[in-house]
Design brief:
The chain has 383 residues and is of the alpha/beta class. It contains 15 helices and 6 strands. Strand 1 (170-182) and strand 2 (188-200) form a beta hairpin.
């Protein structure tokens, strides 16, 4: 039904996030997001005897404003045709002590990161074709730890930053700011100007963050320098960690799990927000990393589209203004890329023999279409 709220939300997704999304794919994304959103809420539930859609709204962490807004809708205005199945999910969660599941799962699998299995193992059974097309593959923890340590080592040895990933030095960056300017006819016209703005030098971006494995390991690596200093750690997290730790993810379910993982990890490491009612948002954004920044967030009539656009607008701040110094992660390997946008294609042209400005001089153009190559080019572009 083209007049239903679900159809309008599909339209919003296609406009802002995934332009070739089908109705079937959207239904899948929607189902996963609600399920993992409820999972997130239940993990924060102190009263195990009861759990409902309405209660889930209050339990989604404020550090993820997009998911909170989505669950406002799920709790209060959900399409009546799907209410029954969401309420049935709440019944399942009401029978579960999610914390106990997390605790036992981590021990049984001999992994510190059960979130990997809650999403990636699930996806392998639930929808293996989606897992393959979007490159959702488990990266062994030892590999993640090595890459993060190697980045830390390069920052200290090659760039001379003695604190490596924990560096707090600042640089001045040109940032575009748009403001309204009144004309003699008393109408407002947008005026863009460049403003010198202080930012942290060591900005870290996971270009395809998934469930946040690399960002979590980066947090652990930095925290190792703050042993037995809880007050200093909390101050550092808000002033010098969260402002420079970023990730892009296109799948809403893994996006939700990434937020949950970082939220749980920071709590386990002793971080408590200085303003409990208004914690800083975590820098993981629902965005297609291989598309240029979103430029039109003010012309969307649908509220859901506005929420998506606000999320994309936050990602724009990273894509357009942030002086990314470290591009990290394990991007998807897919020889038959689903990401065929003009922006990333124009960047890939630099690698080609004809018309390219780079020195790679690649003649077999088909090898340049792998998503993995596109993400390498993306990291190179930011740096």
């Amino acid at each position: 039904d083209t007049n239903s709220s679900l159809a309008q939300q599909l339209s919003a997704f296609k406009q802002v996030l995934i332009h070739d999304l089908t109705a079937e794919q959207f239904a899948d994304v929607y189902a996963q997001t609600i399920t993992y959103g409820l999972f997130t809420a239940r993990l924060h539930d102190e009263t195990l005897a009861d759990f409902s859609r309405a209660e889930s709204l209050e339990l989604i962490p404020a550090s993820n404003p997009f998911l909170r807004k989505l669950f406002q809708y799920v709790a209060l205005e959900l399409d009546p045709r799907v209410v029954w199945i969401v309420d049935e999910l709440c019944t399942v969660f009401r029978a579960c002590d999610v914390r106990q599941i997390l605790k036992n799962f981590g021990r049984a699998s001999n992994q510190r990161d059960p979130f990997i299995h809650f999403y990636e193992t699930f996806l392998a059974a639930y929808n293996p074709s989606l897992r393959k097309s979007r490159g959702v593959w488990y990266t062994p923890e030892s590999v993640v730890q090595f890459i993060v340590r190697a980045v830390d080592d390069v920052l200290t040895s090659h760039f001379g930053l003695k604190d490596g990933l924990a560096d707090t030095s600042m640089v001045m960056v040109d940032v575009e700011q748009t403001s309204a300017k009144s004309t003699p006819q008393k109408t407002s016209t947008p005026v863009t100007r460049t403003v010198k703005t202080p930012m942290h030098r060591v900005q870290v971006l996971d270009v395809a963050t998934g469930t946040g494995t690399f960002l979590a390991e980066t947090v652990r690596q930095i925290h190792s320098r703050f042993q037995n200093q809880p007050a200093l750690w909390t101050m550092y997290v808000e002033q010098h960690l969260l402002p420079r730790l970023h990730g892009f993810e296109i799948l809403m379910a893994s996006y939700a799990m990434c937020h949950l993982k970082l939220d749980v990890l920071l709590s386990e490491l002793g971080y408590t927000p200085s303003k409990k009612d208004k914690p800083p948002r975590l820098g993981v954004y629902l965005s297609n990393a291989l598309e240029d920044y979103y430029k039109d967030e003010h012309t969307l009539p649908l509220l859901f589209a506005t929420w998506l656009a606000e999320e994309s607008s936050e990602a724009t701040r990273i894509k357009r203004d942030m002086p990314v110094m470290v591009a990290i992660g394990n991007p998807p390997y897919s020889g038959h890329s689903s990401n065929k946008g003009k922006w990333i294609a124009s960047l890939i042209d630099d690698y080609k023999t004809e018309g390219g400005t780079g020195k790679l001089q690649e003649r077999m153009y088909k090898w340049l279409q792998d998503d993995y190559v596109k993400f390498i080019r993306l990291g190179e572009h930011y740096i």
